[in-house]
Amino acid sequence: MADNNEAAVNQEEQGPQLSLQRVFLKDISFESPRSPMVFQEEWQPEVAMELNTRSRQVGESVYEVVLDITLNVKNANEPAYLVQVQQGGLFVIAGLDDQQLHHALGAFCPATLFPYARENVDATIVKGSFPAVMLAPINFDALYLENLQKQQAETTTTQ
């Protein structure tokens, strides 16, 4: 019991903690259903991107955050390729209130993982023999706030 109290006091003295422990590739998929014919066409891609995040607690003050990016690329209205990357990270987060924790898991952690995911997306596409795609930076804070506002509006509407 004394050890737990000492740990709580030490944590309060340390203040908030947020640190990246590990970055890992959770899942990756690439499909090019029209290869090799797609390489013989004029390349005018139409890119649709889907972005999602999820998180879960996996230990005391340890959270897994997964950034899921899907690119569905068409050429002349026909599928060219589909790439899906799930970039994961383990974060130690302590000393934050619920609102701060939610914000860290929904914005800060995905922003930290994005460069790794972007590199995996690009490398996979190039290995499929397609031109490189450098995804533009994403403002995860703005996306987080937008999502929060939508949730609040839905809550207000349903009451």
Summary keywords:
159 residues; alpha+beta; 4-stranded antiparallel beta sheet; 39% helix; elongated; transport; cytoplasm
Low-confidence stretches: none
Spatial gap, N to C terminus: 44 Å
What amount of the residues lies in strands?
35-45%
Radius of gyration: 20 Å
Helix-strand pattern: HEEEEHH
Average pLDDT reading: 91
Total number of strands: 4
Strand order of the largest sheet: 1-4-3-2
- What's the number of helices? 3
Q: In terms of structural class, how would the helical and strand content be classed?
A: alpha+beta
How does the overall form come out from the CA principal axes? elongated
Q: What about the largest sheet?
A: 4 strands, antiparallel
Helix content: 25-40%
Describe this structure in words.
Helix 2 packs across helix 3. This protein is an alpha+beta fold and 159 residues long. The chain has a four-stranded antiparallel beta sheet. The protein has helices at 2-14, 98-127, 140-158, and strands at 17-31, 45-59, 62-75, 78-94. The model has no long low-confidence stretch (mean pLDDT 91).
